[in-house]
From TrEMBL:
Protein name as it appears in the record: Acyl-CoA thioesterase
GO function terms (MF aspect): hydrolase activity
Enzyme Commission no: 3.1.2.-
InterPro entries for this protein: 4-hydroxybenzoyl-CoA_TE (IPR050563), HotDog_dom_sf (IPR029069)
Organism: Vibrio plantisponsor
Keywords: Hydrolase
Family: Belongs to the 4-hydroxybenzoyl-CoA thioesterase family.
Amino acid sequence: MENIHFPLETEVTVTTSFQDADPMGVIYHGNYFRYFEEARRVLLDKIAYGYIAMSESGHMWPVIDTRVKYVKAIPFNHEIRISAKLTEWENRLRIDYVIFDAKTGQRMCKAHTTQVAVSIAEQEMCFVSPKLFLDKVEHWHQTGECLQ
């Protein structure tokens, strides 16, 4: 059987809100993480491993590192498209993001977050991602479908 690879990625479109803007009318830099979080939520829901499923599997996944490159200021009441792609999963969870202007396609921001699995029971970091998560990602890469 041929090993088919369906990248685990998604896109969400949002319109920025006034409450996310600073006094100059552009989105405050700290609020970009809300957009990353929404894209990450949608991405992990594709494999039925959102935060509730993570917790039910006995793991939490705290963010341990972030990197953000602000390319162009994003004004409020502006439609943006956030892409999220899973790029590492064996020992940690790394998701790469790009925010685009939804109308022009111009890149406005590039970022990534890194998370690690922590056993809820032992309160210890896992050095390998949990088998359940790895199985879900592998199934997605082979079939493009969610493993319940």
